[in-house]
Amino acid sequence: MSGHNKWSTIKRKKGALDAKRSKAFSKIIKDITVAVKESGTDPDSNPRLRLAISNAKGVNMPKENIQRAISKASDKDAASFSEVTYEGYANGGVAIFIECLSDNIQRTVSNIRSYFNRYSGNLGTNGSLSFVFDRKGIFIVPQGKLVEDDFVMEIIDAGAEDVVLEEGFYTITTAMEDFGAMMKKLEEMKIEPESAELQRIPKNTISMDKEAGKKVLKLIELFEEDDDVQNVFHNLELTDELMAEM
Q: 8-42 b/e with 16+ CB inside 10 Å = b?
């Protein structure tokens, strides 16, 4: 399995676990809030809201919860969130890129810095990891009754860089600039992805022994448990041993 497909598969499995812990719901509610404040409550004219709703359905968020989040976000007194990113290195030189939605940036950066310090890492400057990751569109689509050869051919014709079927799910990879076009193509095919997002895929990965790798995973988990954090990307080589630890 190629590196980005392995990463996407892990994110999908972890996403299912997050949903059970309601972490995924809180992330999506923030996405909905930002989308509504940017461009209103109509998903037909608000692509970001349409995407957030699609991802909400992908983690089985109840329809009434989605509508409640949209209504609450449209209230003028609703919390406002700022999109901020942080970049740094864990012990052993593993690069970590953190995407946040925060209503208190001072709190967020303080927490992020403390997590790095706790595990002998370093918070860097924005842009310092630009050479480490590629931004790609990643779509996870349930296989369902789709005919593999026909579906793969049509999706590649629509601009997909890669399509992989594993464990009943297609992972579709696109260039960042083709993300919107692929979302539109899936809508035209009346296919609702389980998730659709821009991910930061490492160009190369760093190998570590099990014990060192476990420490990096603990740091990553700290970030992921923070309420302000939406996504964490890294370039740690996820061996079978480390995947078992997840």
A: bbebbeebeebbeeebbbebbbbbbbbbbeeeeee
Contact 220, 232 (CB under 8 A): yes
H helix and E strand count, the chain: 9, 8
> What is the value of pTM for the model shown?
0.87
CB of 33 closer than 8 Å to CB of 79: yes
| Sign of the C-alpha dihedral computed for residues 5, 7, 8 and 14 taken in this order | positive
CATH of 82-121+204-245 among 3.40.50.720, 3.30.70.980, 3.10.129.10, 2.60.120.260: 3.30.70.980
pLDDT score of 2 more than 50: no
Q: Around Cβ 193, how many Cβ atoms within 10 Å? A: 23
pLDDT digits (tens, 9 = 90+) for 71-91: 999 988 888 899 999 999 999
Alpha helix stretches (DSSP H) within the chain: 3-20, 23-39, 47-58, 63-74, 105-118, 148-157, 179-188, 210-225, 240-245
For the chain, how big is the Rg over CA atoms in Å? Answer: 18
Question: DSSP states of 38-56 as a string?
Answer: HH-S-TTT-HHHHHHHHHH
Q: Which CATH class is domain 133-202?
A: alpha beta
Our CA dihedral for 136, 162, 131, 89, rounded to 10 degrees, sits at: 80
Handedness of CA 150, 151, 157, 161 (dihedral sign): negative
